[in-house]
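Assemble and predict.
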Amino acid sequence: MLTLTSPVETPLHRLPAGAKLAGLAVFTLGLFQISNLWVLAGLALALAALQLSFGRRFASHALRMLKPLWPFVLVLALWHLWTGALADGAFLVLRMGLAVAAANLVTMTTRLSDMLSVFEMLARPLSPLLPPRRLAMAFALVIRFIPNLAERMALLAQAHRARSARRPGWRLVVPAALAALDAADQAAEALRARGGAD
Amino acid sequence: MERSLTHIALFAALIAVLGLVPQITLGAGVPITAQTLGVMLCGTVLGARRGALAVLLFMALVAAGLPLLSGGRGGIGVFTQPSAGYFIGFPFAAFVAGWVMERTTLPVGIAAGAASVIGGIAVLYIFGISGMAIVLGKTLSEAAMLGMAFLPGDVIKVVLAGLVTQAIAQARPGSLLSRPQTLPVSAFN
Amino acid sequence: MAGITLRDLGYAAAGKVILAGLNLQLDQRRIAIIGRNGSGKTTLLRLIAGLVAPSHGAVTVEGIDPYRDRKGALQRIGILFQNPEHQILFPTVEEELAFGLRQQGMTQKDALRRTRDALAAEGRAHWAQASVSTLSGGQKQWLCLQAVLLMAPETILLDEPFSGLDLPAIARVTRRLEALPQRLITISHDPASAAKAERVIWLEAGRLHADGPADQVLPQFTAEMARIGEADADADLAG
């Protein structure tokens, strides 16, 4: 399945996923302690320079991943134009952008399977409640069934189009949920046929 | 046992798929994402514990780097965005919706609607508004004003959650794990 | 005790009787189960595989109860579902193949090595990391059968193994199945594909209708299907 990991190999790809996540946690906590606008601006420049050093393709991918932030940038801009506290507005936009961009950098340089292994390791203290193999099985099942359910949704939408001029909209949610329930029963049986979950 | 695991996994997949299909359009042509509807359904169909686990499973895969949030968002950055509070509130919303669903004897559709109001709006907004207040550096009441922009869409989703849960109860009575089983389910287990 | 024994076997779900009163001793190498849609063929297979518990009577597979003794059942019996889509549990080919081996107690490393060896032996080493969603219908079915074969059960249950396959794929699967040393119990509604079986069991409305060699049972079955096809309007509702 399509992941957000960048196909452009960087030195960061070779660092262990756990170390990157720990570093990110420290960075983000530290970020919220900073109160000086110019420190934030310096960090933003440094981060941008790092991403540009990995090539234009990587940098533009990173920029695209910041796109969901623009409504919030807009809200902050309008708000602080209204109150006149422009420096405060710039500070908040930079902090938000840095927090998200740094996290995206970890996502872009870590393979999905490595990240999931870290999660499975973090869940190990819970193993009496949540056996590690069952967690791994659950991850695999979701990844297996997303394309399957997406395809069924597309077929349902086509079946709707074949007999209706209106867009299917929320009407698809019922058959999609039923498809999920049926697939769950079938998968439970397939799992049992080969030894069950443990 | 197997059935519990596969239901959790398939509903995690359902939330993802509902986010990939942004085709739900309100009467006025305002598109809304069906993803939070998926979160509500986890609670109203699977019940508190399984519903919350399904949502957590979905969240883990999103955080790990699958672009499954509506609009193709994903990665660890979802925890630092202004909307992070909503994301973090998802499993609590599903749990509370499921908890309400398990404890009321109201008819399924009405119960699911009520459960979604409490879990999918009340609980979720507490988390979501707190998150926006922190990331955007605003007071809670200022953030609440921003949050109210989503209310009309969410009210519609509550109604849909009721209708969809009702339809599921009719089509697959044995599959509504949030309710005491009226039919024997010995066929599976 | 050798073979598979059904003793007064019955199954009902939601108050509806699906199978009743089956007493059979199955020890031939090639057995076909035929019958119309809804005659209970698939339910019978699921009972033999131990996926569901009988509502009445008992199933014994080589001396064990396949529903209660799952570990024992895994060594003795494998099942190929009619729709491969319902059988595949993992996102990649090698995970799907390795799973059953792990369930039989192999370590992850050994299971993956066995899986890769098996793929290489079939000239499909490049499939290991492939996403199952990219496989064609025939390839998915190949994967499901391979997953069952890797677990090396003594008996393999096949639910309409040719449905959804094109003609070359049917020829390939037929050849592959014929070469297997295991006992095969195959469901079919097509008399032609049951012709080579040593024994044919015909179910009708959840009960045994006929049981015997292919050359006795199949002509009766074909004649009866032709008669029904001409006569009734198929307006009865199930349940």
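Chain B has seven helices and no strands.
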